[in-house]
Amino acid sequence: MAITKTKFINYTRCPRFVALDDLKEEVLNSDISYEEYLKEEQTELLKELASDMEVDEQMEVMLPYYNEVEILAGKYAKNYFKGNFKYAYNTFEQESFDCKINGIRYICYVDIYNENNNAFNIVEVKATTSKKFLSIGYKDEEFISIFEKKNNIYHLLEDNNDNLPKKYYQARNKLLNRYDKAGHYVYDLAIQRYIIENDLKQNNQLDKINKVNYYLAVLNADYTFDGKYEKGIPIYSDDIIAYFDLTSITKDYQEIIDQDRKRLEEYIARLDSKRCEVGEFCENKKTTKCSYFDLCFAILPEKNSILTYLDNHYGFNKKSIYELINSGITSVLEIDDKDLTREKNKIQKKVVQTHIPYINKDKIKAGLKQINYPVYHLDFETFPCPLPRFKGEKPYTQSVFQFSLHIEKEEGICDKVKDHYGYLAKDEQDHREELIQKLIAYIGDKGTILVYNESFEKGRLKELADIFPNYKKELLSIRDRVFDLMNITKTNTKLYENLGYTKEEASLFNYYHEDMQGSFSIKKILPLFSNLTYKGMDISNGVEALVTYAKFKTMNKQEYEYKYQKLVEYCCQDTWAMYEILKGLRTVVK
User: Which CATH number is associated with domain 2-270?
Assistant: First the structure.
């Protein structure tokens, strides 16, 4: 049997995963090809980076960019490491290591292998960004990162300093938590180190090597593309990749990995598929959520489960959500009133008990008064490319390729077709300036720009204003007039405090219906106020929208024209949904 890094991570979650993974006798005794190893790695990567997408659906669209990240990391590593290199993608040229422990083979391939004077550098490439690591730190008078940068390589402060405060090590410990957003990647690299060093030890090579260093190569979150192309292909400078030296922290992980390996072997020996207790390792609401999550949580009712309680990750009266589930408490109504210390959770339970929606009419009315006519219902569609495509963009910039706009001239006066305006880029070339020009032309200098989840639209407007200074004044003026429809359904503490409400009143949601199931997403809110539906639409969500846009270049003329129109219809539906919700809220408080 061959255990890869991906299998190691998943099989050590809980006793059940191994058995559910259908480990038949022929699988137990089988080996693994490089192609199979690569497919495992790619599938996990795509699940992590876009959890709401179907892996097969997004693979074709996103994989070329992820491949390019690894090629860039290998290419630019030569600027920082001396000696001989071995790196390749989708070939047999990558260096591999494997070791056998108790009859089980553990195997890994190295993204970038560098050898210099009998010392080795192992570089694992991840298509995430440096932000995950540089956001970890501690405060004295100001924020201090636990990493320092030297020659574009980040090192942990402890590697060069013996007098660090206790809170430095408290922050550093996040890297030793495999379920932390950054610790997840460190754990992955630590498994690789475990396999490599056991391989070298078993082959009597470890003592002959001066040193083995372990690095992560990730995208530099602060890199800005300068817009240089060669034959239509973006040319990136070497600072697009950031390297993190994690040699010391992966060393600290080795004893943990060894204990995890022993548990893994116990799970394989037992192959027990019976339900086990749930816990943090299930990684609910994370991109790394267990693939058997739905099966293990099938004990929860389909409607009004305990997971629909808002802020349930904080627990209830010192009891974690997992402790409650493991004790048999699975629904909203089963949790004891004394354990509901948050007012919002008490309201949720009452709504489920009575089937009567909670409506704070005064706050909704106060919120509605902040909206001035004409109202411009606005929605953007974006392509979150790992590598910046156009000048001024950074890694994972939400590059705007479409907008939809419904203009409600007076209260309730808006036609779905006649009052709809929009723009959709005709291909994957840079059409941002034309999009900006259309947006500015359609939006007048008075009235409210209504959106759903303002941080997204505001962020895109600010980015476009910075990239295109000629339109900065107009774009920032539009941004200043943005109002979030979620302020009225959910709340906005600062807004309502400014309107005279106490902090407790201001922080409490304004509307809650049991059909919302703990979510204030537009798809949950819409059916409460309208018969409008996305069911039956060719394109019915943002993932399908970006995939369709990315595939324009592969379509024949007939398919392109059809899909182009369907993409227009989808984005139109999003802004009309906001109009319907606003109309419904007005009706509720009349």
Answer: 3.90.320
